[in-house]
Design goal:
Blueprint: H1 2-11, E1 25-34, E2 37-51, E3 58-64, E4 70-76, E5 82-92, E6 112-114
Antiparallel strand pairs: 1-2, 1-5, 2-3, 3-4, 5-6
């Protein structure tokens, strides 16, 4: 029975999944449904955590919104709602989770750029 479930899950995996790392600044193109209309909304921020594997793989992205309010969203990488993920720039970090960025504001919240 588990073989059947695994084969169904593997059918829904995206082949063009980007190589994401913690600390990267990314643009997530997310499809949003409002009534009968569908549009793509871009969410740009820093990857502060990666979780899961296979079809349940997810990425947590944090950005600073209006009036300095931090906004975090969790995106499933293989979700049909996520159209594409672009890596804008790489970040040089030494942690698996960047939760310390939640307490930092302004220039202290910046990460060094990593060349790839």
């Amino acid at each position: 029975m588990s073989y059947l479930l695994q084969s169904l899950e593997n059918e829904n995996l995206k082949e063009n999944a980007p190589d994401l790392r913690v600390g990267d600044t990314v643009k997530v193109h997310n499809r949003i449904v409002e009534g009968n209309n569908e549009r793509v909304q871009v969410f740009q921020g820093t990857v502060i955590g990666l979780a899961g594997s296979g079809p349940s793989e997810s990425v947590t992205v944090r950005k600073i919104g209006a009036h300095g309010v931090g906004v975090e969203r969790v995106f499933r990488l293989h979700s049909p709602r996520v159209e594409k993920i672009e890596v804008v720039r790489g970040g040089k970090v030494r942690r698996a989770k960047l939760y310390f960025l939640r307490d930092r504001v302004g220039k202290k919240a910046r990460l060094k750029q990593e060349r790839r």
